[in-house]
Design brief:
With 203 residues, the protein is an all-alpha fold. It is built from ten helices and no strands. The protein is elongated and about 55 Å long.
Length: 203
């Protein structure tokens, strides 16, 4: 029998969801604390709007609480929550308003994307500028942003990310590969533009 007081870091997500299904509100609060940031990132990508993303966050956990008793014990709680978040975001996206999305972990992804240059050091410096990353991200579709968030930021395994997106693993791999290439190309284009502007200012 699960202990209602077992809410420390050693308690697994599955144990917490079982406790929540039995009426333990504190157990569900622990789940929210663990996964709210990931859910909000997914909702932000799907909606493109911070206000709608917050609404999707609330709807996600409300829905999860109401359906805790029906959670499959063999599933990943995080994957389940991200799937709910994506669906909630899609429902709220009546009129998509794109906002700047800044994800610091994508800095590393961009630098490691291997776009190549005659002057890689200068491009790397330019790519690290926050405005450069924002400009590159704005050129990506929501599909590209979603797959990058799930695989490269949240660290979901292929099958988990595919489940959230509702696609097969082969399609997931293809989408991720294309998204990384497009991000690399966008970073290179934006970086080269920044370098050209910088050189012009020095003249």
């Amino acid at each position: 029998m699960l202990d209602r007081q077992s809410h420390d870091s050693s308690t697994s997500d599955r144990e917490l969801i079982a406790l929540a299904a039995a009426g333990d509100h504190r157990a569900f609060e622990r789940l929210v604390e663990r996964h709210a940031a990931a859910v909000l990132r997914m909702a932000t990508v799907v909606t493109g709007n911070p206000t709608m993303a917050e609404d999707a966050l609330q709807q996600t956990f409300l829905s999860a609480y109401r359906s805790a008793a029906s959670f499959r014990a063999d599933a990943s709680v995080r994957t389940w929550l991200l799937t709910i978040a994506r669906n909630a975001g899609c429902r709220l996206r009546a009129k998509r308003v794109r906002e700047d999305l800044t994800e610091e972990p994508l800095m590393k992804l961009g630098l490691e994307a291997g776009w190549g240059s005659d002057d890689p050091e200068a491009l790397a410096i330019a790519a690290q500028r926050k405005e450069t990353l924002q400009g590159a991200l704005r050129t990506l579709s929501s599909d590209d942003q979603e797959v990058l968030i799930l695989r490269d930021i949240e660290g979901l395994r292929g099958p988990e990310a595919a489940e959230v997106l509702g696609i097969g693993e082969r399609a997931l791999k293809s989408r991720l590969h294309r998204a990384r290439l497009r991000l690399a190309a966008a970073l290179r284009t934006t970086s080269e533009h920044d370098l050209a502007v910088g050189e012009g200012d020095q003249r």
